[in-house]
Amino acid sequence: MLAVTAVPACGHVGTDPNQIVALEVVLPDSGRIEVTDTLRPRARALNGRGDSVAAAVVWASLDTAVLVVVDSTTGVAYAQTVGTGRLQARVGTFRSDLQNIFVLPALTSAQAAGPTRDIVTLSAPDSISDSLLVQVSAPVAGTDPLRSRRVVYAATVYPAGVATVRFVPGDTVKTGATGIAADQLRFTAGVAPDSVVVFATLRRPDGTPVPGTPVKFVVEFRP
C-alpha cells in the first residue's frame, strides 16, 4: 500500500508555469517500517501545470538516531531504532513538508488468541461465527507498537462451490493496541457447507511473513 502526499514546496512561487512549485512524495505503507529494515521513498518535482519536471531530488533525515539516509539521491533510509523519524526531500531550494516515518518494532510471532474451531448453527437468526482472533507479539515496548498491523483472512469452503461466505467486517482487519485482530465469518447463501478453513496471514512491511502465520481456523456449519 502506498501513501501519496502532494506537498507544496517552500519558497517563492513565480508566474512561470514551467517553474517547479511543488514536490510529490510517495511513502511505502504510509511511512511504516520495522526496525533494521530499509525504506525506499519516491519523489518528483511538479511545475505550475502539475506536470512532472526532471530534477535531482536530495533526501535528508532530521532524526538520524531513528532513521539514517543511506543514499541521499534515492532516499533509501535505514531504520536504526523504534520511534518516529522525519524525512525531507529537496530540489534546489524547494523542500517538501516533513514526512513522518514510523519505525515499529519487528514482530516476532503471531498466533491464535482464542479457539481455532467454531460451530455455526444455521438455524440461528444470525449465522455468524465467533471472533477469529489473531495475536501478534513484539520484543520491545513503544508507542502502540502492536497497533494497526494488517491481518488478511482468506476462506476455503468445503465442499467447494456450494456456499457463499463473507468476513465481517471484511477480509482485511488491523490489530488494536494490544496486538489483537478480530474477524468473523458469516454464511450468506447457497447449500450449507460442511466446513470452512480460514487462514489469517500477517506480513511485515517488507513483505515477509511473520513467524507463526498463517494462523489456521476451522468453522463448521450445522443445521
Q: What this model shows, in words?
A:
The chain has strands at 2-8, 20-28, 32-34, 38-39, 42-47, 52-53, 58-61, 67-69, 77-79, 83-91, 94-95, 99-104, 109-112, 117-121, 132-137, 150-158, 163-168, 172-174, 180-190, 195-202, 215-222. By secondary structure, the chain is an all-beta fold. The radius of gyration is 23 Å and the shape is elongated. Strands 3, 7, 10, 11 and 12 form a 5-stranded mixed β-sheet that branches. It is 0% helix and 52% strand.
Largest sheet: 5 strands, mixed
Estimate the helix proportion, in percent: under 10%
Helix/strand-derived category reads: mainly beta
Order of helices and strands: EEEEEEEEEEEEEEEEEEEEE
In CATH, the topology of the largest domain is named Immunoglobulin-like
Termini Cα gap:
41 Å
List the helices and strands and how they pair.
Blueprint: E1 2-8, E2 20-28, E3 32-34, E4 38-39, E5 42-47, E6 52-53, E7 58-61, E8 67-69, E9 77-79, E10 83-91, E11 94-95, E12 99-104, E13 109-112, E14 117-121, E15 132-137, E16 150-158, E17 163-168, E18 172-174, E19 180-190, E20 195-202, E21 215-222
Offer a few descriptive terms.
five-stranded mixed β-sheet; single chain; mainly beta; 2 domains; 223 residues
Please sum up the structure shown.
By secondary structure, the protein is mostly beta strands. 0% of the residues lie in helices and 52% in strands. The chain is elongated, with a radius of gyration of 23 Å.
